[in-house]
# Entry
Amino acid sequence: MLKLLRSFLESRAEPEVIPAVPDGQRVYAIGDIHGRYDLLCRMIARIEADEVGRPPADTTVILLGDLVDRGPDSARVIATAREWATRRRVRILAGNHEEMFLGSFERDETLRHFLRHGGRETLLSYPIAPEVYSRATLEELRAIMQEVVPAEDIEFMRSMEDRIQIGDYVFVHAGVRPGIPLEEQKISDLRWIRGEFIEGPETRDFAVVHGHTILEAPHVSSLRISLDTGAYASGLLTAIGLEGTARWLISVQGEPAAEAA
# Structure
């Protein structure tokens, strides 16, 4: 009797959600780059090679945000991403670090926060001498930023997206707040949420692909894919390919940072 009851209950259970990309499309999503120009160049080469080895498809590349801060070459990362987008469809999400970078042009408290969390490395990737940076007051530093950060970089960051949906996949920087419809999600949650999303129940009918929370290795489950493997310090940059219901990981490894920022 118990066996029959268990079989009956299992037959009534909700089927497992198997996310899929629409037919004819392919997606690559890349985790947080954080100023690692060297790793971005290697990842571009890997994705281009992976694409050549597969049947033709309508392909989209998505960068999951946090292109800047902590690593040594944020300026070149921005320039490279912008150039790559002229050669293929590249869509880019705004991360919390892009938010801080843009906000630092206007607010002292945001500038302080930005500098404490990798902004120093970002600014020094532009033509600012370290000794000039060290002597500058906040007001002086903001004036220098306005001179050395190209308007094209600022407009590029302002044009970044908050959420991308392709088929059964939703791409965001940090995550989504459980129980809130996608169209009602706050931008602050999409860019900053952490524990409430990661530890919350996976009761969605779509999969979330995100970065923001550093892991030693990517997390891949039916409804959540986390790709931030701490590239700025670990030297490991991770991406995922998606086509139909198929998934495959792509990684590039470089030298780890001398010390984490």
Q: What stands out?
A: The domain at 18-95+161-253 is CATH 3.60.21.10 (Purple Acid Phosphatase; chain A, domain 2). The first helix runs from residue 2 to 12. The two ends are 61 Å apart (CA to CA). The longest strand covers residues 236-243.
